[in-house]
Amino acid sequence: MTIEFDDNLITGNELIDSQHQELISRIKQFVDSCEDGGGKIKAIQMLDYLADYTNFHFSAEEKLQKDVGYPGLAEHQKKHEEFKNNLKELEAFLDEVEGPTDAFVEQVKKNVVDWLFNHIKAFDRSVAEFIFLTDNPDRL
After folding, report:
1. Fewest CB atoms within 10 A around its CB: which of 10, 19, 65, 85?
2. Pairwise CA distance, residues 129 & 117, whole Å
3. Domains in the chain with CATH codes
4. What is the pLDDT of residues 36-83, one digit of tens each?
5. 11 by DSSP, 3-state: which?
């Protein structure tokens, strides 16, 4: 599985896209470390960083949505909570094993990578389109 920010993930909003690039870069480092046998302590540290950066990013996205009057904010917040719960489940999974196993890496790919890529392509792109159309009413 390729974990990289590419054109399919561009929303067109500079703030959102730059934060997604950082988040995806960190997720790639996390998965690479787990696959290379980086150990439990390193995996815990990287998962903690992901949780912190995710909270920062989601707060910024939600503030942006609130500021522009995005009508789908409540639904978007629910999706963000879903992702945060996925990270908590991964923390619990990691607590139960000696280190990041193949099963753990598969859960990361499913519950973090796949989830995030799908979220960006659907939810975040719709936010960016709403902002663009709001800022450019002549385009309607």
Report:
1. 85
2. 17
3. 14-132 (1.20.120.50)
4. 887 888 888 889 999 999 999 999 999 999 999 999 999 999 999 999
5. coil
